[in-house]
Specification:
Elements (H helix, E strand, L loop, with lengths): L17 H6 L3 H5 L4 H4 L4 H11 L7 E7 L2 E6 H17 L7 E5 L4 H12 L3 E5 L5 H11 L3 E4 L1 H4 L12 E4 L10 E3 H7 L14 E7 L7 E6 L3 H10 L8 E4 L6 H13 L3 E5 L5 H10 L4 E4 L1 H10 L1 H5 L8 E5 L5 H10 L4 E5 L9 E2 L13 E2 L5 E4 L12 E6 L8 E2 L3 H6 L1 E2 L2 E10 L5 E6 L4 E3 L2 E3 L1 H8 L5 E11 L3 E10 L7 H14 L8 E4 L13 H9 L12
Parallel strand pairs: 1-11, 3-4, 3-5, 5-6, 6-7, 10-11, 10-12, 12-13, 13-14, 26-27
Antiparallel strand pairs: 1-2, 8-9, 9-19, 14-15, 15-16, 17-18, 18-21, 20-21, 21-22, 23-24, 25-26
Helix pairs in contact: 4-5, 4-6, 4-11, 5-6, 10-11
The structure holds adenosine-5'-monophosphate-propyl ester.
Adenosine-5'-monophosphate-propyl ester binds next to helix 11, strand 14, strand 21 and strand 22.
EC number: 6.2.1.1
Keywords: Acetylation, ATP-binding, Ligase, Nucleotide-binding
Enzyme class: ligase
Length: 571
């Protein structure tokens, strides 16, 4: 165990005394910050946006500082509030009702955030899709969720399935198109005529707010359903973990197609009325540094993959930028290497704070809270109000320093409320009152949690969660591929890369062209981040007698490890 400690820095942190605060904590104290505490009715769009637009002190404050390689724009709370009212009126005009699923398949842009809040204002459930998805990935999600409306751009429209989606009534296009099909609604035209006044749909705390699809080790991606009640924890962690203050300029690098890009790219900063930097497009180290410098970012939430890339480009690159505004850096999504923390202390002169949570958990649960010492390699401690533990497969708690399932006592505010259309999957997460994460970890004597790995076959590549089944299913659609087994292979920068083992159909010969063709097939059919970086042709794929692919065995082969128990092996 690495017990090297990075001590606490001086700072006027929002959460000053972790132990004392945790001991006397109740969520009730947080809930009193919201108007619904009195009325019982709520809407995230009010708490994160309209409340600031109504307040004379914050209405003209910049909410959104947007930039992409092509475009720069700022929006105040008041502007964003009015624009999203307009969009809510557009949605109403086309019959959107409370509880409908309205999906967004578009890059980060001011229109994305306008539409997003418009969806919440009508009481509908927002479904953001990662812009890199290809047709199959889009189809699976729209179909499973029975989405009624989709908002997209002309560039992405060709990846939207045109058939086999009986529930999809309208497609709203942000941008110019020539097609006059009745199904298409033009965003700009509709917004021109829409009223800036809208009567918000007040909903219950337990009403649906957002649906994020994520991958498990088996089956298609699953719709993780979150409700408005999650705001309690977004609000609290924005204060304790992000340490946000009124004059901060905050930047979260995650795309809103993933949960970090909504919980911490939208809700957490805006619940506190903090100026939020949004940068569209993919990034290079220079883009990261430029965005930090130009916007004078003070609080930055990013991922180990990004930080590792900065490390590999060296301190010299960093020295070309003035990053003195930055006071707080956080990381999420993959193990944060101790070396990165050490580098960060030297290069940024700042500690990098790890945070642990998942799509299903809706908000941060374990974190290196600013007022705690950091033990590099550890994810930190559970936030106030959260009981975390290590349990065995029956849900019994294990003593310190013993490895097991990382589990959370069920019932925290931002916890998912269902898996869309899949109650049995939802139930399968819980054992003996614990939510079992699928991560293995241990806890030291002082209550710090140490991540060890995934217990299932879920792949984490550059912080993006990929289900092997989805990739395998796509691979065997290729005419040359007979069978496929997909694993995550350790990689120094990306955490893991996707490696596929395949067998070929009769009449196909191995060649570099064929392998590239298969790779492209997954890339263009599913998405770039799901395409295997390595493909190896084998004579057979190891399977159990019931036909399940033994991915663990493939992994052992790949890594030259002992193969363990193979008694269920069929072939
Ligand atoms: O394995 C853990 C890893 O990412 C998984 C959750 O992925 P996703 O639902 O896409 O959410 C990512 C961001 C909230 C977890 O089961 N993970 C997340 N944070 C960490 C992590 N692994 C190690 N250290 C972390 N801090």
């Amino acid at each position: 165990m690495d017990m090297k400690v990075v001590s606490v820095r001086e700072g006027d942190y929002n959460l000053k005394n972790y132990d004392e605060f945790r001991e006397n904590f109740s969520w009730d104290a947080i809930e009193r910050n919201f108007s619904w505490y009195e009325t019982g009715k709520v809407n995230m769009a009010y708490e994160a946006l309209d409340r600031h637009a109504e307040n004379p002190i914050t209405k003209d404050k910049i909410a959104l500082l947007y930039s992409s390689p092509e475009r720069e724009e700022t929006l105040t709370f008041s502007q964003l509030s009015k624009d999203s009212n307009k969009f809510a009126n557009v949605l109403k005009k086309y019959g959107t009702e409370k509880g409908d699923r309205v999906f967004l398949f578009m890059p980060r842009s001011p229109e994305f955030y306008t539409a997003f809040f418009g969806i919440l204002k009508v009481g509908a459930v927002a479904g953001p899709l990662f812009e890199a998805f290809m047709e199959q990935a889009v189809r699976d999600r729209l179909k499973d969720s029975e989405a009624r409306i989709l908002i997209t751009t002309p560039d992405l429209l060709e990846r939207v399935p045109q058939a086999d989606l009986p529930d999809l009534e309208k497609i709203i296009i942000v941008g110019e198109i020539n097609d006059n099909s009745k199904k298409y609604i033009r965003y700009a035209e509709e917004m021109k005529d829409a009223s800036e006044e809208f009567e918000m749909e007040w909903v219950d705390l337990e009403d649906g707010m957002i649906l994020h699809y994520t991958s498990g080790s088996t089956g298609k991606p699953k719709g993780v359903y979150h409700v408005h009640n999650a705001m309690i924890q977004h609000y609290a962690t924005a204060s304790w973990v992000l340490d946000l203050k009124q004059d901060d300029i905050y930047w979260c690098t995650a795309d809103p197609g993933w949960v970090t890009g909504t919980s911490y790219g939208i809700f957490a900063p805006w619940l506190h009325g903090v100026t939020n930097v949004i940068r569209g497009g993919r990034f290079t180290p220079d883009d990261w540094y430029q965005t930090l410098e130009k916007n004078k970012v003070t609080v930055w939430y990013t991922a180990p993959t990004a930080l590792r890339m900065l490390v590999s480009y060296g301190e010299d690159k960093l020295r070309r930028y003035n990053l003195t505004s930055l006071r707080h850096i956080m990381s999420v999504g993959e193990p944060l290497n101790p070396e990165v923390i050490t580098w960060g202390m030297k290069a940024f002169n700042l500690r990098i704070h790890d945070t642990w949570w998942m799509t299903e958990t809706g908000a941060q649960l374990i974190a290196n809270i600013p007022a705690l010492e950091i033990r590099p390699g550890s994810m930190g401690k559970p936030i106030p109000g959260i009981e975390a533990s290590i349990v065995d497969n029956e849900g019994n708690e294990l003593p310190p320093n013993q490895m097991g399932n990382l589990a959370i006592k069920a019932g925290w505010p931002a916890m998912m409320r269902k898996i869309w259309n899949n109650p049995s999957k939802y139930e399968s997460y819980f054992i003996n009152g614990w939510y079992v994460s699928g991560d293995s970890a241990y806890r030291d004597e002082d209550g710090y949690f140490w991540f060890q790995g995934r217990l299932d076959d879920v792949i984490n590549t550059s912080g993006e969660r990929v289900g092997p089944f989805e990739v395998e299913s796509k691979l065997i659609e290729h005419e040359a591929v007979a069978e496929a087994g997909v694993i995550g292979k350790p990689h120094p920068e990306r955490g893991e890369i996707i490696k596929a083992f395949i067998t070929l159909n009769e009449g196909y010969e191995e060649s570099p062209e064929l392998l590239e063709d298969i790779r492209q097939f997954v890339k263009t059919g599913l998405s770039a981040h799901a395409a295997p970086r390595e493909i190896e042709i084998t004579d057979s794929i190891p399977k159990t007698r019931s036909g399940k692919i033994m991915r663990r065995l493939l992994k052992s082969w790949e890594l030259g490890l002992p193969t363990g128990d193979t008694s269920t092996l069929e072939n």
